Amino acid sequence: MTGREGSPPQRGPRRAGRPARPPVARSEERTAGEGSPGERPGRRAGLSPQRVVAAAAALADEQGPGALSLAALAERLGVRVPSLYKHVGGLDDLHRRLALAGMLELTDQLGEATVGRSGGDALRSCATAWRAYARAHPGRYAAVQRSPDPADAELAAAGERLTRLVLAVLGGYGLTGDEVVHATRAVRSALHGFVSLEALGGFGLAPGVDESFRRLVDLLDAGLTRRS
What we know:
mainly alpha, Tetracycline Repressor, domain 2, 11 helices, 0% strand
């Protein structure tokens, strides 16, 4: 029976239940893959030096090499700046890695374009691939122009590989010794100057730029043919 009307019913003794969960420190609540507070765990997963450099290359291509900073890169990857130091040694190291990646990519593309070709045919294919890479990857291309540290064996070897490829292309004209070195410098200066001016919007006159580039390569071919 109940007690007086309007009074609450009497409850029996409280049953023993599951003990209350003790408070957990914030550092223990985060899982191993979530990183520090403020980071987005889904984007941080799988972060590696290769992924960091790829993101830096994309950022440099989209906004220019001057926009590349650790803060901008961290924002792109969804992490805090200190997290980047687990994969790169800082901004200088990042620029160095970007230069290396660009140099290897450019060399591969020039090699694919010129394989099995010689003389003027090889020069035109090399020039076309050179311009295409500079237009598609302006940030990476700019990084390639950075003078390497002589003590950096890996970067020096990559630069040597690129130089030897161009030397081989020009060797098809029968040039040897100092002649092929001078020719390589002339061709590199002409191509780099053209693509750099093009990237800066330096060609504002009416004639088509593609035709101007074709004529530039024809002039190089004619000059090299006369020297052979």
